[in-house]
Amino acid sequence: MTERDDLGKLITELAVVTGRVTLSSGAEADFYVDLRRITLHHAAAPLVGRVMLDLVADWEFDVVGGLTLGADPIATAMLHAAAMRGRAVDACVVRKAEKVHGLQRRIEGPDVAGRRVLVVEDTSTTGKSALTAVEALRQAGAEVVGVAVIVDRGAGDLVRSAGLNYRSVFSLTDLGLAV
């Protein structure tokens, strides 16, 4: 089995919650993929970092991040996995809105101006969260190289129509969850 296979097994065992739920997009579904159960899990998080790096191995970037909260543990896992491979990748956190106190930053972490940034997300249904992060990063002077997600619920077309590269580790079909 590959690391991707191992991650898929953990997702289906730990993160798929059945029952009627309302997604952040407002759509209703008969299951929820709670990837925080994976990205914050002792065995799965290191796999997330390595599998996501492998997914975008041909993309050039030196910062990874996205809209808080879903992207934060992914970016951190990728930062650590990259370091283990001898590669320098920083992580950043994109707030939903600018802070009104302290340094009043919307992008936390190292400065992203003039840097190539990969936007990550755990699960994406509409792509709107990823595009919100893309816009904030561009406003901060970053060059966004693309969007990568662990599980795609249908966001690819919207993200690609915005002129961005888009990849996912898994589709719902890959996980046996196709509707």
TrEMBL record:
It is an enzyme of class 2 (transferase). It comes from the Bacteria. Gene3D superfamilies: 3.40.50.2020. Orotate binds at residues 125, 153. Keywords: Glycosyltransferase, Magnesium, Pyrimidine biosynthesis, Transferase. 5-phospho-alpha-D-ribose 1-diphosphate binds at residues 95-96, 99, 101, 121-129. InterPro entries: OPRT, Or_phspho_trans_dom, PRTase-like, PRTase_dom. Its cofactor is Mg(2+). Pfam families: Pribosyltran. It catalyses: orotidine 5'-phosphate + diphosphate = orotate + 5-phospho-alpha-D-ribose 1-diphosphate. Residues 40-161 form the Phosphoribosyltransferase domain. Pathway: Pyrimidine metabolism; UMP biosynthesis via de novo pathway; UMP from orotate: step 1/2. Its EC number is 2.4.2.10. GO terms for molecular function: orotate phosphoribosyltransferase activity. SUPFAM superfamilies: PRTase-like. Catalyzes the transfer of a ribosyl phosphate group from 5-phosphoribose 1-diphosphate to orotate, leading to the formation of orotidine monophosphate (OMP). Belongs to the purine/pyrimidine phosphoribosyltransferase family. PyrE subfamily. Homodimer. This is Orotate phosphoribosyltransferase. The gene is pyrE.
